[in-house]
Records
---
Amino acid sequence: MDVLRAPESIKQSVPRPPPLTLANASMVALYTPCTLHQSILPPELACNLFYTMLDEARHWSRNKWWLFDRLVESPHRSAFYTRSAHGKDGDDEAWRKITKAWYNGRDMDPPGVFPSAMEEACKIIETVVNAEIRKRQRYPLEWGGDPSATEPGAKDVFWRANFAASNCYDGAKETVGFHSDRLTSLGPYPTIASLSLGTPRTFRLREVIPIDQIDKRAAQTYNIPLPHNSLLIMHASMQERFKHSIPPQSALDRFRPAFPPHPSLPALSFDPATCRINITFRFYRPDFHPDTIPRCKCGEMTTLRPDMKQREFRYWWTCTAGDQNEGKGCGFWKVMDVRAEGRGPFAVVTDPNNS
Ligand SMILES: O=C(O)CCC(=O)C(=O)O
Ligand SMILES: [Fe+2]
């Protein structure tokens, strides 16, 4: 993820409005490029998955990276999972590289595969996500589907989850700061399906105002309460336009699971009443295979970032090797050129003479 860096010199002159709470699905859809599904999984599956991930979380770690001249540690635990049937979605070596990029350039053990409850949940979520995408406007650089897919119904599959990042927030003070998700393996205009389990937390988002509008309007902050078993789908353009976070809270609602843990599970290391598990189901795009990602002068994979301030549908490949190298990167950047780099197919075909 890209953590919000030091503010740039351009000052916001328009006063910032107070935060707005988006308490239901219609408000979320009205103000943001997200959809909220309040109760997504059968209740027993949601509970089983919660316990499974709480059990897994005892092995999760806190991500670490250099921020300027300081080594910082993530204020929550996380882990990375790939779907068992890699099939056409890459081999172990590709996944090792994707995992390394996810952990800010640290070499990690190979990721785990989806536990069975997560696989079951993923199938349900994929159907809901594809139904939502079918109703929406598509953006030019969104993934256009697998041209070699021949199985029945393949044309209706806009999105599939082939990996997931999972987070555990143990108590009200564990958080994630404002960021947008890195696009290196997801490509432009990704869809990310975010499942919440356990104690409710507030998901906060704030639009990044483009430079040409900075004197006219101020960024609005939105708070979306995410209860147990809710699914927030971050649709195309969310990562390009908004930053998101899970802020600290002064108090938590205690979560009372409707079903007890399966007797085969060992005693949990975290208190289910005050923990939140988040699973973000993601689609690593085959046209952003790690071997096609430009390398910087440090010899590392670069990171794909949107140009959030200019909004000219422009993306940069930038050096982030400094995340691991005591803050010292090579400063490399270049504009992504989808044609020269052979990316695609895209959801919307644009005129090559007109872009
Ligand atoms: O916990 C959440 O809902 C957000 C997690 C997140 O932003 C991320 O994993 O990138
Ligand atoms: Fe995120």
---
Amino acid sequence: MTSSLEVDRVTVEYTAGAPVLRDVSVAAQAGRMLAVTGPSGAGKTTLLRAMAGVLRPVSGAVAVDGKPLRDRDDAVSRRVVLIPQDNGLATILTAGENVQVVLVANGFSPEDARRATAESLEHVGLSAQAGQLVEELSGGQQQRTAIARGLALSGAVLLADEVTSELDAANRARVLDLLRAEADRGACVVLATHDLEAAAACDAELHLLDGAAELVRA
Ligand SMILES: Nc1ncnc2c1ncn2[C@@H]1O[C@H](COP(=O)(O)OP(=O)(O)OP(=O)(O)O)[C@@H](O)[C@H]1O
């Protein structure tokens, strides 16, 4: 089944009366990649967190398949996957454990979780690091572990926040190919990025500036 993600006139505030996003609307469609660009502090992470159901807008709504998201639990049950900017990995677990634990928590049997973990780490080129503690991995290897974890969940919506920032050119190209493969299997992919080449690899681009959004490429 394919899904669509609609952001309808969303305003988000961290402090009452000081919106970080103002009246932002955009739709992300199944099978396509949407880039969210803009300078540091423009609100890219805030928008992805609202899309993920982590932040509740003060007005407007985020909907998947026309049904508004209630909160993060609702978003998880509707297969909205967020790969966060800070990776969100448990540093005292291995790369493999980080992926596997999340899969089991999402209903995979231990055997399926083991298989999907091995496949996903292989896709990002980390098979040899599966048993290594996250705190022993480089920044780019940690970033790829978080990507492997997000990809393994096979979301209907995949929200990737600055997932190429620590990667060399070859790994960046590999990750963009993997995100494209997610879109090709029917996911809505949203990529927040500073990287102009990564943005150019997407089908559409939403540019944020001072909390307002403009669709610069549809
Ligand atoms: N938890 C928070 N509490 C208060 N203000 C916040 C919080 N998180 C972000 N902000 C503010 O919201 C604005 C947008 O931040 P956000 O992280 O969404 O920007 P960004 O475009 O992702 O930036 P970057 O490219 O540097 O990651 C910034 O002014 C930031 O200081």
---
Amino acid sequence: MGDTLPHPTDKAFWHYVGLMTSASDHEPPAEPPAGLAPTTPPAVSIRGLYKHFGEKIAVAGISLDVPAGSFYGIVGPNGAGKTTMLSMATGLLRPDGGTVAINGLDLWTNLFEVKRTLGILPDGMATFDRLTGTQFVTYAGLLRGMDRATVTARTADLLAALDLRESADKLIVDYSAGMTKKVTLAAALIHAPRVLVLDEPFESVDPVSAAHIREILTEYVRTGGTVIVSSHVMDLVQRMCDHVAVVAGGQILAAGTVDDVRAGRSLEDRFVELVGRSHTAEGLAWLRTS
Ligand SMILES: Nc1ncnc2c1ncn2[C@@H]1O[C@H](COP(=O)(O)OP(=O)(O)OP(=O)(O)O)[C@@H](O)[C@H]1O
């Protein structure tokens, strides 16, 4: 497809993306016959996912359904198992046990087919930093089997939308942490995936860029995409997401709509209540300056 895309900040872009991925995915589902429940499978369905590293159980039998078309936040303290869970849910890490289905299709028995529908922003994974921003995003598109004209047009659109146009020809090794995050996000979006899984996408990103990314993601969800995002910023998750799961010790402590999980309080208060305060500064008396 060699035609020019509308700008990603333009609603038409996301309509177009919907047409690119699968027309039917973004149309309102046909009414089911009377008396029958709708049959749309969850975008991501996790059952009994388990992973250990030596003695450490990182993910202890997690089950979770992410409804199609939802904006799903994953929150949890450091070391809770979020990255390990998301890596297994996206085919980056093989689980010791359990299953993952993406849009009803088993991930590990249909790995290549399923991966085509996923856009992934892994946390802390090495990237090809000897490429320029343009080369990296172009490479991601060509790797997905897209034709060069479409890749070129979309690369330019995405770099502009993520405020990277002026650094497009700079090597990624010379990017700041936030710029690297944004170029990796562009690479995750290039093939217009149905499901986006973003591990801490706002980390190191300045507030203006973060607001811009939020806008892009919100529009993506509005036009039928599903986003799963892990974050430590409760306020952001409360404002941006419609669903949330609280993970700690490799288990889900609470999951559902944001309003159900926070139960009338702020998500941050609810999070602290669920996870518990485990540290005090009492042992650091020597740090006091007065
Ligand atoms: N490759 C690995 N080898 C050994 N232990 C690991 C490995 N990956 C993760 N772990 C351990 O598994 C647990 C869960 O780690 P994980 O990175 O999934 O947590 P997280 O919730 O993403 O944390 P953070 O919020 O700090 O990014 C931690 O105790 C971590 O030390």
